[in-house]
């Protein structure tokens, strides 16, 4: 009997790279529950990295071959660094927030403050700058002088370093994936100022990224990986209360912080100002794997309006429709979704389309 395609290609071991954040949940749950092995894949223990620069470098060097990357980072990698990275699926929806010192409760109080972002090319930097502009505040990068009363200075910081920096008073806030926002509240060292999913409804943050050559040379291997990730996302949607316990094997944060992300209804934050759009029915984190072209196009346009350090010449030349077709290879995730009940199994429209909703006010 002929072996399945995945089993024919299991000589390519799966090497997963991830950051210690709940954005990595689908990749990690697929490992914990044995989904990769059930697809016939040989898989190594996932490797934890502290920051986005480190995981991007490891991916480019071939130390890992499947990673979750910030969607804007994937754009920068392919077009800014000319590295053949391809997005094959979304890893999750939402899952991030802007956390500040407990004394900061109004946007005007952010003026003159220092705020950390995890990477210049991140949905965090994009949505934070949307929030600042909506409140007549100017983001400044790498300013040697003290920012003015209507300016907010931004710097890049690795996610694990953010809460200690906030607790020590080095920064006034940070915007990042969880459970670092939940942990700040549990330790009473910060307050969630605004959820990013309340600025850009059900945005993608991290996406599953592979090398273009792997998709071309090992399509059955790639399909097997995506199958496992899609199955893990379905499990996460149905077993949110159990997810935190599974993830404690991979994430160093306490169970209480991880669990809060999966079990806390966001309507409880309406009175604090962290949620403005209850009619969006927001969830702290959710899962659906299809990479909507509308999001990619809107993200390219948003990046053109976002201040980042370094050479941004490549951004000006990017055409949103081209990026939506060239950066993303949706063949594998479409097949996997269809095999697991279609888009409606993830509470998504059956026609594979959606309209982006953005409101930072």
From TrEMBL:
Entry GO terms, CC: endomembrane system
The keyword Zinc is assigned to this record: no
UniProt keywords, alphabetically: Cell inner membrane, Cell membrane, Membrane, Transport
Pfam families xrefs: NMT1_2
Top-level taxon of origin: Bacteria
Main location: membrane
Signal peptide, first to last residue: none
Region (Disordered): 340-361
Localization (cell): Endomembrane system
PANTHER family according to UniProt: ALIPHATIC SULFONATES-BINDING PROTEIN-RELATED, BLL4572 PROTEIN
Protein name listed in UniProt: ABC transporter substrate-binding protein
Annotated source species: Thermalbibacter longus
């Amino acid at each position: 009997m002929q072996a399945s395609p995945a089993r024919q290609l299991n000589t390519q071991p799966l090497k997963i790279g991830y950051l210690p954040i709940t954005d990595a949940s689908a990749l990690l749950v697929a490992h914990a529950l044995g989904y990769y092995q059930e697809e016939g894949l040989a898989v190594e223990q996932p490797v934890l990295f502290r920051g986005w620069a480190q995981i991007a470098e490891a991916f480019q060097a071939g130390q890992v071959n499947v990673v979750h990357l910030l969607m804007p980072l994937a754009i920068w990698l392919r077009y800014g660094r000319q590295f053949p990275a391809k997005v094959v699926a979304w890893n999750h929806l939402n899952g991030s927030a802007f956390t500040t010192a407990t004394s900061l409760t109004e946007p005007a109080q952010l003026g003159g403050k220092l705020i950390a972002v995890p990477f210049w090319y991140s949905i965090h930097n994009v949505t934070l700058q949307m929030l600042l502009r909506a409140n007549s505040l100017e983001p400044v990068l790498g300013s040697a002088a003290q920012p003015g009363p209507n300016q907010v200075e931004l710097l890049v910081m690795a996610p694990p370093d953010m809460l200690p920096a906030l607790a020590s008073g080095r920064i006034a806030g940070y915007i990042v994936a969880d459970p670092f926002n939940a942990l700040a509240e549990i330790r009473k060292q910060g307050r969630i100022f605004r959820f990013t999913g309340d600025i850009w409804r059900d945005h993608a943050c991290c996406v599953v990224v592979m090398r273009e050559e792997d998709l071309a040379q090992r399509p059955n291997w790639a399909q097997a990986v995506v199958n496992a990730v899609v199955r893990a996302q379905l499990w996460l949607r149905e077993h949110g209360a159990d997810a935190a316990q599974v993830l404690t094997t991979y994430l160093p944060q306490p169970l209480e912080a991880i669990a809060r992300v999966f079990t806390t209804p966001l309507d409880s934050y309406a009175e604090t100002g962290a949620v403005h759009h209850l009619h969006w029915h927001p969830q702290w984190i959710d899962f659906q794997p299809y990479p909507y072209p509308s999001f990619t196009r809107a993200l390219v346009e948003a990046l053109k309006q976002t201040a980042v350090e370094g050479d941004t010449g490549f951004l000006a030349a990017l055409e949103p429709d081209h990026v939506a077709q060239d950066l993303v290879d949706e063949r594998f995730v479409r097949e996997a979704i269809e095999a697991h009940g279609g888009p409606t199994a993830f509470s998504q429209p059956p026609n594979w389309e959606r309209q982006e909703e953005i409101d930072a006010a």
